[in-house]
Known about the structure:
The chain has a six-stranded parallel beta sheet with strand order 1-4-3-2-5-6, with helices on both faces. Strands 7-8-9 form a three-stranded antiparallel beta sheet. It folds into two domains: 2-173, 3-Layer(aba) Sandwich (Rossmann fold); 186-281, Pantoate--beta-alanine Ligase, Chain: A,domain 2, CATH 3.30.1300. The chain contains ten helices and nine strands. It is of the alpha/beta class. Helix 2 links the parallel strand 2 and strand 3 (50-55). It is globular and about 55 Å long. The protein starts with a strand and ends in a 9-residue tail after the last strand.
Amino acid sequence: MKxxxxxxxxxxxxxxxxxxxxxxxxxxxxxxxHAGHLSLIRQARKENNIVAVSIFVNPxxxxxxxxxxxxxxxxxxxxxxxRKEKVDFVFLPRPEDMYAEGFSTYISxxxxxxxxxGKSRPGHFRGVATIVAxxxxxxxxxxxxxxxxxxxxxxxxxxxVRDLNIPVKVxxxxxxxxxxxxxxxxxxxxxxxxxxxxxxxxSKALALAKILIQSGARDTARIxxxxxxxxxxxxxxxxxxxxxxxxxxxKPVKKISxxxxxxxxxxxxxxxxxxxxxxxFSTQSESVPA
Length: 290
């Protein structure tokens, strides 16, 4: 496995691969790899000749009061996991290389970035879109693999790729969960034993929403109210948002119909967690959560 730290070195390496007609599957990460990341890497391995992973804790997507300095950075462990998964190369850039002095060019996906997580994390998705665009320019993959857990991020990246005519296929893979239902996240490492138990309320609230919909509930205000009451029973939980939106434009819907996304963000103690599921409702059939 190669560890490549500069764009210039990566361009040289990729030129040889592309000349031999090799396809590249790419998994962008901020490190602290877990089973969810590994599932993306394995899917990339199934479908491509070359598997690329980037590890970069992106400062542009953290707000001034957020956890950039304390974000987990277990690099030796991450590299060992990549080697075990037979990753071909890891791109490991430095912040000063990705954001050179005087850096002033950012990408903003308007209409999708200001809602949901964007309300409480202004500028976050500008940072996400910018770094992903830069990584796509540098790594030049055929396919990029993303997780459904970060549903808003996935929608934004798909729109950016479409709008900017970036020649890459975006593949969204299902959320991986612990046996108890907790969605895998690098931030789960912040939770103590009691907080991990309390964090199960996110997946339980989503399960409640699914039951209500299957039982005939269509009014989203009623569904959200039931989810809110369930979460509020946990004294350690503070709701950021619960929303039911259209999967394409992320605009709130009043009635369950067509393709919908139920998303929520909840602080458990000091740790902000997100979760979601996508469904499809029609008079004939209804999908299960993603």
